[in-house]
């Protein structure tokens, strides 16, 4: 049996939160687990341990991938969205020759589009039997106040559900120091209880088991074990709308996603049972797929190939990398940027690709010899959409009407040239109104020459909207793409309409 | 009857060099947009080779010279054309390629050069047929520009099939490129060449026939795959195959799937959908997450190998086509044809041209809105598999008979 070295964060030795994955590994490998502690000095013993392994598997500690790749080991990286969701491209480039598992779709796509080779996984725990599902005659919530500093706190829960609950239990044990003692309102309609410790896991489980509503305690998750356990037990789950919470909860279908930054009271009583049941069923079905994916997990690891052994002082590199990573993100990126020669050896990527990443290369403009359209802006940088000669109009527009023009469908294109701003910033203002039948607003994304320059909501009724972009984005002929999240037909109009526009105006900022 | 060249360039050249004297009937299938190893163009080459090639002694398939060599070798496609469409359908790293054609003038010149070289290289003669399975703008332009050379070659027959996609890809040179395409076809016909026209959909054929005042045959997408049995499952699998795009209704899917899930909380109905290509997906990650989070939804990559696509149909019960009616007002749908041949019912939003084929052949059901489509998904899920199988077989048989007849009428 092949040997796998499983490198994990010391914290997980206590929480055992990686055990479910290690158990799968043990069906195909002799697994040795090596814990590393960020609080300690770098433990170079892990290099010797890797020397005896056939494959190295990094749970969360993705930054260490180049260390083991440089040893010529096949490396599997399992990053987590909450820890690595914001890492820059260069971080992923140093792990280019590794294979990834991702428990987050958002992170999977991030890494895949950065050139990584990734397999998306979706974990689901065992669900309780259907006859053990809770009733929803009354609403009893459980909330572990773990990260009140992130905005998911008692006050938020009270704002969201204070008028709905029959009882609320707060387990007030924060992950960070400080006094975050909840202050229940005297007139609260629910019965309030709290705890600060449990004698053992069974006590905690009993307390949690009395609830049928569960509020996920953290803004973002790597997997979301607590949330998934609650869904598996048939509780109604509420969570802040960010991965991976948002990847398991379809809002108001099998749970509720809230925005911690703009909370308001919500009415759940009528639909709680239905949503909780679908949440439970999500886990039941998901569990089958998770179990069925285990052979593919092993195959994915078997398929990882070693890169070339890089001749260097691996222990020194490991220590420098360790210290820079835990110093700050800036220090870490700076360290990686100084190691580009190593990167080209490790990744086997051409140097121009490396430079593309370092410099955040823009798509090269197409070198047109001359403007192919007559789309010069009018005086004052005016792009008048009501012009009947369709001067600026590409795909996705209706005919010009006397005072406006409709965007038809979800994507409309405009062309313009003749904006004489060479450097600095360019101000853009446009006048638009969304179709009232589409609700309060239509989300509009505008790309100028393939770069996003504006994202925002357009509401019914004429309003002016503004955005600013760098003059360096401009070309001889410019291409605006407008994307909308909604469009619909009307009983009297078969076109798919979304937003109507009057004009765009451009000027130097 | 068909003696195919099978991609052996040496054999092809030796057979063709003397064709003006030998008068062997030969089909030269031309597609400058046959450039990606995935998608419909390579498959169309193969299908035309078998389906149209049977009327000829020899077949030569000619694609873009940037088609990956392994794909070209596998399908016997010879390189013959520059790539004229990097602005419309970019090649990987195409924007960094300094040799790629950029301007209208460059493309027009290259297209004519390619065509003239093709006539010389293959010794094209009067017994030959140039067949364009999905004519593109610059090929049309080249045909007109090379009228003298075509006449000198003995006026080979020209089969032009329009599918409402690339015949208007004029690099932004014209605000009304279809008008230009029609004018080019008229010019070609007026030059006395033997031009046989076909369109992918009946609606487009009617439109073109009226505009050109010439007969236009209907030649739907060729498909040869066998009908596969409907699976006997506890659940119903609904698929959205093909690279999802904005104009194929990708941004309608969350609404549609959510509505179905609300009506089907037992999760009997499952969805499998491909997603946007990366160039669009990177702007729609939040939307992708919403789609992914809906219980019972599986998201698949934008591009899937042909065998996985075939398996997708085999494991499906129902195919969704929530396409934009404006973009598809004249267009057909390869997915519809694949679904019908596989024996899978389709649901489509009303408006696109291919909806006429759905109605005529009974290959699916037309929906008035996304809400209506959600209702019909639920209704369909309650139908017994045997009923579905019989209905699909009837639609398929009628379509296959019609397809054979319409191609024969166009080609002969």
UniProtKB/TrEMBL annotation, chain A:
<dbReference type="Pfam" id="PF00534">
    <property type="entry name" value="Glycos_transf_1"/>
</dbReference>
<keyword id="KW-0808">Transferase</keyword>
<feature type="domain" description="Glycosyl transferase family 1">
    <location>
        <begin position="196"/>
        <end position="263"/>
    </location>
</feature>
<dbReference type="GO" id="GO:0016757">
    <property type="term" value="F:glycosyltransferase activity"/>
</dbReference>
<dbReference type="InterPro" id="IPR001296">
    <property type="entry name" value="Glyco_trans_1"/>
</dbReference>
<protein>
    <submittedName>
        <fullName>Glycosyltransferase</fullName>
    </submittedName>
</protein>
């Amino acid at each position: 049996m092949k040997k796998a070295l499983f490198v994990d964060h010391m914290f997980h030795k206590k929480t055992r939160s990686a055990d479910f994955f290690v158990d799968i590994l043990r069906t195909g490998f002799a697994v040795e687990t090596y814990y590393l502690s960020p609080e300690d000095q770098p433990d170079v013993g892990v290099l010797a341990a890797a020397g005896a392994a056939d494959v190295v598997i990094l749970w969360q500690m993705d930054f260490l991938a180049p260390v083991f790749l440089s040893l010529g080991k096949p490396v599997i990286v399992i990053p987590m969205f909450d820890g690595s969701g914001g890492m820059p491209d260069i971080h992923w480039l140093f792990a280019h020759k590794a294979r990834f598992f991702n428990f987050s779709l958002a992170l999977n796509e991030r890494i895949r589009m950065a050139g990584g080779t990734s397999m998306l996984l979706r974990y689901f725990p065992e669900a309780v039997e259907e006859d053990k599902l809770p009733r929803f005659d009354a609403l009893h919530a459980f909330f572990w106040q773990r990260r009140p500093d992130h905005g998911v706190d008692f006050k938020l829960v009270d704002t969201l559900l204070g008028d709905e609950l029959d009882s609320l239990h707060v387990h007030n044990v924060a992950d960070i120091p400080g006094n975050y003692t909840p202050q229940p309102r005297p007139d609260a309609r629910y019965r309030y209880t709290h705890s600060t410790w449990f004698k053992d896991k069974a006590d905690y489980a009993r307390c949690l088991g009395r609830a049928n509503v569960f509020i996920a305690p953290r803004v973002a998750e790597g997997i979301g074990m607590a949330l998934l356990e609650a869904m598996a037990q048939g509780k109604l789950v509420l969570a802040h709308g960010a991965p991976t919470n948002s990847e398991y909860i379809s809002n108001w279908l099998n749970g509720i996603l809230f925005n911690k930054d703009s909370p308001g009271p919500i009415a759940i009583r009528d639909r709680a049972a239905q949503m909780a049941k679908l949440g439970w069923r999500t886990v039941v079905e998901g569990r089958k797929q998770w179990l069925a994916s285990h052979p593919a997990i092993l195959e994915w690891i078997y398929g990882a190939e070693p890169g070339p052994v890089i001749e260097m002082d691996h222990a020194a590199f490991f220590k420098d990398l360790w210290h820079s990573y835990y110093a700050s993100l800036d220090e870490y990126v700076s360290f990686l940027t100084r190691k580009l020669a190593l990167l080209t050896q490790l990744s086997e990527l051409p140097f121009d690709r490396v430079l593309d990443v370092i410099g955040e290369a823009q798509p090269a403009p197409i070198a047109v010899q001359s403007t192919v359209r007559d789309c010069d802006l009018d005086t004052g940088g005016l792009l008048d959409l009501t012009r009947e000669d369709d001067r600026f109009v590409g795909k996705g527009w209706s005919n010009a009407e006397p005072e406006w023009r409709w965007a038809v469908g979800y994507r409309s294109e405009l062309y313009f040239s003749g904006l004489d701003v060479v450097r600095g910033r360019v101000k853009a203002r446009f006048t638009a109104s969304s179709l009232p039948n589409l609700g309060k607003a239509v989300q509009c994304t505008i790309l100028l020459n393939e770069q996003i320059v504006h994202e925002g909501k357009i509401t019914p009724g004429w309003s002016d909207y503004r955005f600013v972009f760098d003059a360096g984005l401009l070309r001889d002929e410019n291409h605006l793409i407008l994307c909308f999240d909604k469009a619909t037909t009307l009983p009297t109009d078969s076109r798919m309409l979304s937003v109507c526009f009057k004009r765009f105006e451009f000027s130097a900022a | 009857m068909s003696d195919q060249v099978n991609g052996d360039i040496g054999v092809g050249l030796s057979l063709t060099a003397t064709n003006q004297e030998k008068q062997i009937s030969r089909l030269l299938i031309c597609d400058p947009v046959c450039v990606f190893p995935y998608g419909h163009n390579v498959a169309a080459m193969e299908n035309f080779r078998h389906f149209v090639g049977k009327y000829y002694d020899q077949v030569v398939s000619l694609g873009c010279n940037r088609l990956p060599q392994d794909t070209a070798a596998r399908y016997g496609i010879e390189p013959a054309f520059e790539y004229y469409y990097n602005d419309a359908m970019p090649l990987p790293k195409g924007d960094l390629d300094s040799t790629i054609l950029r301007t209208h003038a460059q493309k027009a010149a290259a297209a004519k050069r390619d065509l003239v070289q093709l006539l010389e290289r293959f010794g094209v003669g009067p017994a030959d047929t140039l067949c364009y399975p999905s004519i593109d703008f610059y090929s049309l332009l080249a045909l007109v520009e090379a009228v003298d050379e075509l006449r000198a070659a003995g006026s080979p027959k020209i089969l032009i099939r329009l599918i409402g996609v690339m015949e208007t890809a004029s690099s932004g040179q014209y605000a009304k490129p279809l008008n230009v395409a029609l004018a080019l076809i008229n010019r070609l016909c007026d030059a006395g060449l033997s031009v046989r026209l076909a369109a992918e959909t009946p609606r487009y054929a009617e439109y073109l026939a009226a505009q050109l005042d010439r007969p236009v045959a209907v030649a739907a997408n060729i498909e040869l795959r066998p009908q596969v049995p409907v699976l006997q499952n506890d659940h119903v699998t609904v698929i959205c195959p093909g690279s999802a795009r904005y104009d194929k209704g990708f941004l309608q899917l969350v609404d549609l799937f959510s509505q179905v899930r609300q009506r089907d909380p037992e999760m009997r109905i499952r969805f499998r959908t491909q997603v946007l290509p990366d160039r669009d997906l990177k702007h729609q990650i939040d939307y992708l997450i919403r789609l992914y989070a809906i219980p019972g939804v599986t998201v698949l990559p934008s591009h899937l190998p042909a065998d996985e696509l075939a398996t997708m149909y085999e494991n499906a019960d129902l195919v969704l086509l929530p396409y934009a009616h404006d973009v598809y007002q004249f267009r057909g749908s390869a997915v519809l044809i694949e679904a019908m041949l596989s024996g899978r019912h389709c649901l489509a939003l009303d408006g696109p041209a291919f909806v006429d084929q759905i109605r005529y052949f009974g290959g699916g059901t037309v929906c008035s809105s996304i809400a209506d489509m959600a209702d019909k998904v639920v209704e369909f899920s309650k139908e017994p598999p045997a009923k579905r199988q019989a209905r699909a077989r009837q639609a398929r048989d009628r379509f296959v008979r019609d397809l054979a007849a319409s191609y024969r009428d166009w080609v002969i």
